[in-house]
Amino acid sequence: VALSALFYAAFKTYSMWVHDGDEHIYFAMAQAVVHGKVPYWDFFFAHPPVHLVVPALLFAVFGFSYGLALWIAPLACLAAGLALWRLVRRFAPGWVAVLTMILFLFGRTVLQSSSHLTVVNIGLMFLCWGAERLAADKPKTGGVLLALSVLTGIYFLPASVGVLALYAFYRPRRSLGALALFLLVGLGVAAIFEAVTRGQFLEQVFF
Fold it and tell me: Does the global pTM surpass 0.90?
């Protein structure tokens, strides 16, 4: 697993250069958040807030640099791959889990999308870790992580609901805690942004 992760990181250095793409808009928006600007109110943003919160937190701690910014997407995908490895090894032999991680990380779509900071990178990380935590029978952590995936990109909602439904099938009583935190975090964050931006959050993200 460690060798696969190191090889992936080394392989991704080919894309560690500044190139044209939408990610520069997200970098600028994340820096604006660090300086106190509120998405949906101070500038238009068509995605849920966690997509900006993750890079903004990193920039707030370490400062902005392309050396840091360009690594967010590949490291998020690597984190998703590690979650898949942990998830699969709970139900299958270890070699199957390692193979799953390798096929995921070196699949064409992941290799291409992990070269740019998009909603998919960060949202997929939260989705995979949410599923892994539920598989580990940690409903509260799993529910929060799945909510964060949806708060990164709305199109993670069907997958998150599917994971919760599957968990509820096997652990009906414990799934209530996961569902409660999923709704509390998801709806709570949405309600806060809707109130702070005076209706701009829902209008920009959904309409």
Answer: yes
